[in-house]
Each structure stands twice: as structure tokens, then as C-alpha cells.
């Protein structure tokens, strides 16, 4: 049966660990210049309803590294843009390609696509979740810390799609996720309840200082996500005071790392000083999108990497 990756909890903790281990091996193979064409002759369709830099380039280069091919598909240039239904497009594309990555406004679109496509479907970001980002982030933290159990990650700012995926990941990694958001922009209760029901340790507070206390990792994201543009003024007002700056960073563990999925708006959710500072690992995160997604694709399309590679 095909396996989709619509949410980080589509993986269990062993699958997550094994994909991260494969990603580390793939990173090593790439940096040694060793060919690793585990998806030779395979194709990935990539549908983007929204803009992208990292996701698009990392999936496209990833498929090329693996000996396969990626197709960038803009819904406006497809019959989707003229009203062809998702369920019809999904069934047709699945007859051509070996997997589909889709970035959509609505999570329901991603789910519908996956329901009708007979090939693995990867959520490349929806209004609700961004599992590929958190997969790469978990790889990045694993490189730094080894075991993630017991670490505390403080999310500061908008309780958005990336935050939701972090919350859900808590039960898989054993990390504590402390979210500080203004009440209006808190993550949805159903996400928090789901994570807790799975054994995740999640706390939701209003005060950023409370969230970052003893945190090993600080994480933030833009205050105005794609699709939220009409709320810009209101969001900037409500989120003032939730900037990761050097004063807030000083309240965390002394060696705390700072993460951001990018794109960043310096001066809003993070200061230039922190983003460019020694505790920031934002470029490693961005790089690891490539390696982590390659490992994911090899798993979903080919069942995993050969044991001796
Ligand atoms: N972090 C992330 O998904 O970036 P893009 O929007 O550039 O793909
Ligand atoms: N929360 C952001 C993430 C961008 C990668 C958005 O959805 O626009």
C-alpha cells in the first residue's frame, strides 16, 4: 500500500529515526561526491499553489541527485486553474509520476489529492501543517544534540502551520514544546489535544519569557503566513513583543540554538543580530531540507535505501 506524508505523525518514531539516519547518510554521500541514484528513472510531480524558494529547489535538486526527475506544476498553467477537479487531476498525475508533492492553501486539498492519487503524496506545506520543514529541523537538531529526548523547544510568535507540526512531533521525539503566542494566534486546541493524546509534552503560554526559560532551542516564523496577508496590520500589532531578540535569547539556556524555517522578516519576528549571531542555525536547517526530503522520497518511492550505502 502506498504511504503518504501529509503530517509528521504519518511516521512513527522508528520511521522518523530511520529517515533521519538515511538523510545523514545521503548528506555524507553528496558531500563526498559519491553518486546515489536510488530513484533513477523516477519522477516527482510538484504542485505549488503558493510561492516557494526552499521547498521547490530542494525537491527539484533532490530528485536530480537521486537520478530522477521533478516537474514544477503551477496550477494556473494546468487545467486545475480552469476548474478541473483535484480528484481528477490526482488520478491522472498518478498514472504518470511516481510521487506528488503538493503545496496548497487548504489542508483539505492536500488530503483530497492523497485520497485519489495512487502514488505517495507529500505535503509541501498547507495552511495547517508543514511536515517537511519539521522533518529537516529534526535532522538538524539530531546532528547537534544526538538524542532529542528531554530537550525543550520554545516556539515564539504565531501558532501557525510550522508550529502545529512541531507540536505534533513532540510525542515522536520526546521533546517538550512550549509555545508563547498572543491568545488570538495560539495553535488550534485540536492540534494540541492530539499531540497530548499521543504522549506529547506541550505547553501553551502567553509570555515569551516563560516559554524560553531553560529552552535548548528557540524557534520562530513569519507573523504573516501565505494566505494571511489581509490580516497583516492586525497581526503586527498583536505579535509585537514576540520578537526573538538578544534580550529574549538571554533568558534561554546559555547555549540555546535559534531556528527559523525562513523566509524571515528581520525586525519583526527575529532581529538581524540574532539571525546572524553565533546561536543561529537557520542555514543548516535550510540545507537539510534537501537531505531530509531525499531520504523521505527514497523511503516513499523505493521503500528505503540499500543497507550497504
Ligand atoms: N521554509 C520553506 O518552506 O520555505 P519556502 O516557502 O521557500 O519553500
Ligand atoms: N508559515 C509560513 C511558512 C513559510 C515556509 C507560511 O505558511 O507562509
Short synopsis of the structure:
The protein is an alpha/beta fold. The protein is 41% helix and 14% strand. It has two domains: 8-130 and 286-302, Aspartate/ornithine carbamoyltransferase (Rossmann fold), CATH 3.40.50.1370; 145-285, Aspartate/ornithine carbamoyltransferase (Rossmann fold).
Rounded mean pLDDT is: 98
Q: What ligands can be seen in this structure?
A: phosphoric acid mono(formamide)ester, norvaline
CATH superfamily of the largest domain: Aspartate/ornithine carbamoyltransferase
Spatial gap, N to C terminus = 25 Å
**Major beta sheet, strand line-up:** 7-6-5-8-9
What gross morphology would you assign?
globular
- The total tally of domains equals 2
What is the second-level CATH architecture of the largest domain? 3-Layer(aba) Sandwich
Helix content: 40-55%
Question: In terms of structural class, how would the helical and strand content be classed?
Answer: alpha/beta
Largest sheet, described in full? Answer: 5 strands, parallel
Describe what this molecule looks like in 3D.
α6 links the parallel β5 (152-156) and β6 (176-180). α1 crosses α5 (131-145), α2 crosses α12 and α5 (131-145) crosses α12 (282-302). The two termini are 25 Å apart. The chain has two domains: 8-130 and 286-302, 3-Layer(aba) Sandwich (Rossmann fold), CATH 3.40.50; 145-285, Aspartate/ornithine carbamoyltransferase (Rossmann fold). The protein has helices at residues 13-31, 54-65, 86-93, 107-116, 131-145, 161-173, 189-197, 208-212, 232-239, 246-249, 272-275, 282-302; strands at residues 43-48, 69-73, 99-103, 121-123, 152-156, 176-180, 201-205, 217-220, 257-260. The chain is α/β, with parallel strands linked by helices. The site of phosphoric acid mono(formamide)ester has 8 residues, from α2. Norvaline binds next to α6.
Amino acid at each position: 500500500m502506498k504511504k503518504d506524508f501529509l503530517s509528521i505523525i504519518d511516521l512513527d518514531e522508528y520511521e522518523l529515526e530511520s529517515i533521519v539516519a538515511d538523510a545523514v547518510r545521503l548528506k555524507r554521500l553528496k558531500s563526498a561526491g559519491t553518486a546515489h541514484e536510488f530513484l533513477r528513472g523516477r519522477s516527482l510531480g510538484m504542485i505549488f499553489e503558493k510561492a516557494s524558494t526552499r521547498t521547490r529547489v530542494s525537491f527539484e535538486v533532490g530528485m536530480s541527485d537521486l537520478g530522477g526527475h521533478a516537474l514544477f506544476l503551477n496550477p494556473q498553467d494546468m487545467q486545475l486553474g480552469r476548474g478541473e477537479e483535484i480528484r481528477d487531476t490526482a488520478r491522472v498525475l498518478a498514472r504518470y509520476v511516481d510521487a506528488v508533492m503538493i503545496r496548497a492553501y487548504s489542508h483539505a486539498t492536500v488530503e483530497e489529492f492523497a485520497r485519489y492519487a495512487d502514488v505517495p503524496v507529500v505535503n509541501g506545506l498547507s495552511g495547517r501543517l508543514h511536515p517537511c520543514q519539521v522533518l529537516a529541523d529534526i535532522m538538524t537538531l539530531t546532528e547537534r544534540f544526538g538524542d532529542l529526548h528531554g530537550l525543550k523547544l520554545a516556539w515564539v510568535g504565531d501558532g501557525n502551520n510550522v508550529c502545529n507540526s512541531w507540536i505534533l512531533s513532540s510525542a515522536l521525539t520526546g521533546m517538550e514544546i512550549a509555545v508563547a503566542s498572543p491568545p488570538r494566534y495560539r495553535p488550534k486546541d485540536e492540534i494540541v489535544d492530539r499531540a497530548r493524546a499521543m504522549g506529547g509534552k506541550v505547553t501553551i503560554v502567553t509570555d515569551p519569557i516563560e516559554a524560553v526559560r531553560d529552552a535548548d532551542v528557540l524557534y520562530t516564523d513569519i507573523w504573516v503566513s501565505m494566505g494571511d496577508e489581509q490580516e497583516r496590520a492586525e497581526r503586527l500589532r498583536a505579535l509585537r513583543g514576540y520578537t526573538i531578540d538578544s534580550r529574549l535569547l538571554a533568558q534561554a539556556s546559555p547555549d540555546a540554538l535559534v531556528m527559523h524555517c525562513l523566509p524571515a522578516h528581520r525586525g519583526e519576528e527575529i532581529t538581524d543580530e540574532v539571525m546572524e549571531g553565533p546561536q543561529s542555525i537557520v542555514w543548516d536547517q535550510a540545507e537539510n531540507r534537501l537531505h531530509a526530503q531525499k531520504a523521505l522520497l527514497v523511503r516513499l518511492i523505493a521503500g528505503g535505501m540499500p543497507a550497504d550505502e
